Amino acid sequence: MNRRQTIPKELRYTFQQFNQDFPTDDACLESIKEQRFPGGIADCPKCEKPRKHYRVRGRTAYACQTCGNHIFPLAGTIFEKSSTQLRIWFHAMYLIGSTRCGISAKQIQRETGVTYKTAWRMFHQIRKLMAEEIQLGGDGGSGVEMDEMYHGGRRKANSGRMLKADQGKKTVVMGIVERKGRIMARVTLEHKMLPVNTLVQECVLPKTTIFTDESRVYGAVSELAGHGYEHRRINHSQKIYVMGDVHTNTIVGFWSLVKRGIGGVYHSVSAKYLQSYLNEYSFRYNRRDSGNLVFSSILQRVGEMASHKPALQAERNPTL
Ligand SMILES: [Zn+2]
Predict the structure, then answer these.
(1) Rounded to 5 degrees, what are φ and ψ at 230?
(2) Phi/psi class of residue 146: alpha, beta or left (left: φ > 0; alpha: ψ in -120 to 50)?
């Protein structure tokens, strides 16, 4: 199956285009520089003024046109301490941004030619870029669904619920999704679980209807009526899954996507990495209508997520 054929033309970013846009390490560096210092204009700490900066040949630095002071666009980014070529990082971001149902470190290793260890580390760093803090719902929307998924441990047949013996020690993922919209999913240990209402107030805008099942976990959501949230519940235990618009099918669909990914692509995911895995899936889900332009969104995050220390630190790879 050629996955590219399923992407509408205007949302398609072919590998050929990618190669044209980023043919060399220099081209990649230039794009990060443009993101962080458009036009090469940056505040020069020596001149104490915004100045134009020019690339220093053979280095990852750009020099102030007036005093020659160097700035380093990669400082504070995920690339800063890596000795892997930028071009390979970009290639890995392209692959992660182009897959529909997940890609393994093994596949990244195969396609980019780095060692498995490097591929795995790159993957983990790139996933960090895919963490988002978003607020869902709001006035005029069609509401959000909220549900939990248990990770690991044995489950009761057909219910997805944890066996009594395993309760209290397992990893729980709380998810909230807008219908036809965006999702957020957060991993938490069951015994350290954030009160559901705190999560709602953090992640859901007031004047939102919240759909949940009848589980005790969500009992408290009704108490939020005073804060402008409306709570509606569906009774799954009586085998009722949809009552008018009261259902949690959207989030249940996302959980099955996640579980298929864990089972099929990653085989298993330890609790430690589950959050970054969910970040990756949510990031792509939230851009499911942008074809593989998801790559551009990931690239955009490099600058957005860079620490704000001035880009003055030692450079990464003097041979670049
Ligand atoms: Zn200067």
Answers:
(1) -110, 140
(2) beta
Q: Is 212:172 a contact under the CB 8 Å cutoff?
A: no
Query: Directed axis angle between helix 116-129 and helix 271-285, to 10°?
Result: 60
Distance 320 CA to ligand 1 centre (A): 23
Cβ neighbourhood burial of 229 (10 Å; 0-12, 13-18, 19+): buried
Residue 66 CA to ligand 1 center (angstroms) comes to 5
Beta strand pairing status for 209-213 and 144-151? parallel
- CA distance to 158, 212, 277, per residue, from 236 (Å): 11, 10, 28
pTM value surpassing 0.85: no
Joined tokens for residue 313: 């630190």
What the block records as the tokens of 128 is: 């960090």
What is residue 4's predicted lDDT score, i.e. its pLDDT?
45
User: What is the 33 CA–ligand 1 centroid distance (Å)?
Assistant: 17
Kind plus residue range of the DSSP H or E element containing 92: helix 86-98
Task: Yes or no: say if 244 and 229 are a contact pair by the CB < 8 Å rule.
Answer: no
* Ranges of the chain with pLDDT below 50: 1-4, 313-320
Residue whose token pair is 């666009």? 73
Mark 63-96 as b/e (b = at least 16 C-beta within 10 Å). bbeeeebbbbbbbbbbbbebebbbbbbbbbbbbb
Q: Which backbone phi and psi does 19 adopt, to 5 degrees?
A: -65, -35
9 CA distance to ligand 1 middle (Å): 45
Amino acid, res. 285: Y
Say how many Å lie between the CA of residue 255 and the centre of ligand 1: 52
| Number of neighbouring beta carbons within 10 Å of residue 140 | 7
pLDDT digits (tens, 9 = 90+) for 121-139: 999 999 999 999 889 998 8
